[in-house]
Fold:
Amino acid sequence: MKKIIKPLILLLIIAAVYFRISIYPKLDLISGFAAKSVASGHFIDHRSLKTIQQGDNDIDKIDWATNTIHEQGQFVTSNVHGLKERKAIYRPGLGATLINDDFDINKPYEVPQRVIKPSNLVFPYGNKEAADTLFANIDYRKLQSAVNNAFDAKGQKAKRTRSVIVIYKDHIIAEQYADGFSKNSKILGWSMTKSITATYFGILQHQGKIDITKPAPIPEWKKDSRASITINDLLHMNSGLEWEEDYTKICDATKMLFQDSDMSQSQAMKTALYKPNTHWYYSSGTTNLLSGILRKQFKTHQDYLNFWYSSLLDKIGMSSSLVETDMAGNFVGSSYGWATTRDWAKFGLLYLHQGNWNGEQLFDKSWAKYVSTPTNTSNGRYGAQFWLNAGGYFPDVPREMYYCSGYQGQMVAIFPSRDLVIVRMGLTEEPGFDFNGFLKGIIGSIKNQN
Structure:
């Protein structure tokens, strides 16, 4: 008997040590992700708990969480087998915010003052349905086949596309949604929000209110080597600052999104590992730092909140859009932008038209070229908070394409010479979803007349 008991005790000790070292520290992030995801999906897009758990939270380890929606208080609590409970609160106008134990839920807060003007114009400059327009250079059967192929057959769960829309010459030529989703469904763009954040710098530059070539206004950097880092370097993800972005483990990015109260400071506190413009590295912390820099451009927090909508989102009719804030009141510009598929397409169209929206120039034409020009050391993959195909990452897709990209395969793809914008929203990215084949199929259905 003793021969059996001793090995069992040893195994239990090893299991306990493994749990304490490897698993337990992750529970805070697991329950944090789960609570935030459920709160956002439920209160922003009115999804049921079952829908969220089977879709948004159907992720390895995240599905360990037990989630409870508190309708009356408008918050969600999540835990893993009773451990590490986290809470996410919902506030109209600000979305869902994952809070820490010391967050004062009774503290007054400001919300964006939005002006959403009704429009009798047809899409994209309004929301009225346009009359069908048939283009002689489009093979509609081939186009529909390419779109259909982006979705799972009934009973399958591999591609997990939620929506696709194709805009050609400002006309919707294809649009499709998975069961449970429609043109009114608000979908999280994740890191596509980075492209929105960058756009505000283009708008401020167009207004003569900022110079992105100047050093970043971070007081803590003035007395060390970081003093030479410019806003331009930050926009290009080429600051040389220390950062780790690896969502398979606890890292700088996960700690920022699911633990830090002020996400604009997460990157600011890091040391410089390289000289600016010599080492490209993708960093969500950098984008939230940029959101904090934007906040400094305004006299009041209210002005900062209003600007995100009045200068861009409401200006181009993205009336469904919502960018969520952190505990300190900063927009989480790296990750938390919501909008309908059609409204995400409007953002792509703004860049397709080089900043001109129905006759009004929101940013200089040169800004569209700036964000779509490869930054140093990125091998043609990245511009200024936009991804690029300049290096042929998608081999069967035009090199001119640049795009917003988000976790789980969100994409707004812009093709300047083809007058084309393609949006795909879903829950699977490469290699589960074949973006090269998807884009190739759609482009191949349209004969280029230029």
About this structure: Residues 16-21 have pLDDT under 50 and may be disordered. The CA atoms of residues 112 and 306 lie 5 Å apart. The radius of gyration is 23 Å.
